Amino acid sequence: MSDHDSTHGDDEPRIREGHLSGDDLTAYVCTNGHATFPGHQRCPTCGESQDAELDLSETRAEVVTWTTSTATPPGVREPNHLAIVEFDLDAALEASQDFTAGTVQGPVRTLAQLTTGDVESGDVVAPTYVEELREPGAGIREPDSQSWDGYRFEPVES
Amino acid sequence: MRDVAIIGASMTQFGQRDAWIRELLAEAGDACLDDAGVEPSALDHLYVSNMASGEFEGMTGVPNALAHDLGALGAYTQRVDQTSSSGGAGIYAAWQSIASGASDATLLVGGEKMTHKTTAESTDVIASLTHPAEYKHGVTLPSFAGLTARHYLERFDAPRESLAKVAVKNHENGTRNPHAQFQKEVDLETVLDSPIVADPLRLYDFCPITDGSAALMLVPAEEAESYVDRADDYAVISGVAGATDTHVVHERDDPTVMSGVVESGERAFDMAGLEPDDVDVAELHDMFTILEFLQMEGLGFAEHGEAWEHVEAGETEMDGDLPINTSGGLKSKGHPLGASGVAQGVEIYEQIVGEAGPRQVDADVALACNVGGFGNCVITTILEAAA
């Protein structure tokens, strides 16, 4: 049995609820400190189990790039302002009780809706909770197969 | 492993067709058997590249249906789905069947029926490949392209016009392809003034939604001459390889690098014993104009961040150093998902055997790069002229 396997008892489930789904704005961290959002069954970098969690729901991020989509699928707002944002990992670690600075490797990013199309790359944004990002069942994806709430990001003073 | 040859090819008219998936596949498969001079009863394997006939049409089990409709009963059949790179993955699967000795005659047919759905519905079927954390934000493949294009233009200080020039070039090439969906030139102003779809990209930066099918006939290279009229009337698959990148697009270290393109290209060049400089003509997966830049760089035809300079210099035009997308590309020829990678194979086969008509360039080595998702899975194929 490998060291990896030894971290799990026979009765312990290997997938936690929501781990692979990206339901929550939570980064998953493996035993070697690699962090991803969303989580994976094995760490994409080293193959180890992702056993630790880092809440990002109150962490600011920087806009890496953005677009405004005007040809949106069923159940999606139009226009749809979207961005790839990169979290301030140091700030998230500082706010956490479970990690010390420098023990988690990023970058950790997410693709997300923006509250406005009035942004530029490099802007600082903060997550704001939305009950329904997209109408469940309007598109092809089975409504019960995933969550539909989540976080939009809005520009804030840096 | 045995060397593998392509001895025949076909493609249907691409565009808005009345035919449904079974009819489209049968049309291309029938024409390819004719082109290769192969009887359907001689087929050992029959592969169908298709992404979503169930989702688009409510029709599944299409390989078996095609075997029955083509008179190839008894052949082993298999569907190959790798989203937009299903066609390239089909070439890989068909190559494996011959190279391994499992089959002595393999027909590959790729096809998709899409245009009966609205643009929004088709976009959603394609976007269903995304992770739940992406899908719930309403992301589409075009919006990934907009995000990447903005980052590329800002980071490398590339002019917006350079992307538009990809569209202008591929539309001009498409005027010489009788099977292309659009056989119409567009000028730079038309591209730059077209409606915004995913800022900064506009309508003419995107490929259309398309019905169509394409096919290739594969046999052992040592038997190829027994099928063809002229000794050099076939192409050899000297390199073919695939690779995957992240499912979740924002997890990539560098948004302007598609590692699936890099790794599949390196493996295909390695297998062929060739370098990027050896390639005479290439078909790249220009589902969006920005993808032509990313593939040129990932395959080693340009340095990172410099593909736009080669386009600006005209090097990728028909009379340039490396003509890219002589077929018109997905941009002008159309993009019936499962057919596109096979149609890329049809174009580079015709270039190698000298059957490309008004699109013909001088080519002994040709490459096709077929991209699934937003670079999520990639197949690169290299063809060479018969020795």
Plain-language structure description:
The complex is a heterodimer of chains A (158) and B (387). Chain A has 158 residues and is mainly beta. Chain A has one domain. Chain A has two helices and eight strands, in the order αβββββαβββ. A five-stranded antiparallel sheet of chain A has the order 6-5-4-7-8, with no helix packed on it. A three-stranded antiparallel sheet of chain A has the order 2-1-3, with no helix packed on it. The termini of chain A are far apart. By secondary structure, chain B is an alpha/beta fold. Chain B has a domain at 4-117 and 209-224: Peroxisomal Thiolase, Chain A, domain 1. Helices cover 39% and strands 18% of the residues of chain B. Chain B is built from 15 helices and eleven strands. In chain B, the strands form two sheets. Chain B has a nine-stranded mixed sheet with strand order 3-2-4-7-1-8-11-10-9, with helices on both faces. In chain B, strands 5-6 form a two-stranded antiparallel sheet. Chain B starts with a strand and ends with a strand. Chain A binds chain B through residues 21-23, 36-38, 44, 64-77, 80, 82-84, 107, 109-113, 117, 121, 133-134, 139-141, 145-148, 150, and chain B through 55, 119-121, 123-125, 127-128, 131-140, 142-143, 146-148, 150-151, 154, 195-201, 246, 248-251, 253, 255.
Strand-helix topology:
The complex is a heterodimer of chains A (158) and B (387).
Chain A lengths: L2 H4 L19 E5 L4 E2 L13 E6 L5 E9 L10 E8 L1 H7 L13 E5 L10 E7 L19 E6 L3
Antiparallel strand pairs in A: 1-2, 1-3, 4-5, 4-7, 5-6, 7-8
Chain B lengths: L3 E8 L9 H16 L8 E5 L3 H5 L4 H9 L5 E5 L5 H14 L6 E7 L6 H9 L4 H4 L5 H16 L3 H15 L13 H6 L2 E3 L2 E2 L9 E9 H4 L10 E10 L14 H14 L8 E4 L4 H10 L8 H6 L16 H5 L3 H17 L11 E8 L4 E9 L2
Parallel strand pairs in B: 2-3, 2-4, 9-10
Antiparallel strand pairs in B: 1-7, 1-8, 4-7, 5-6, 8-11, 10-11
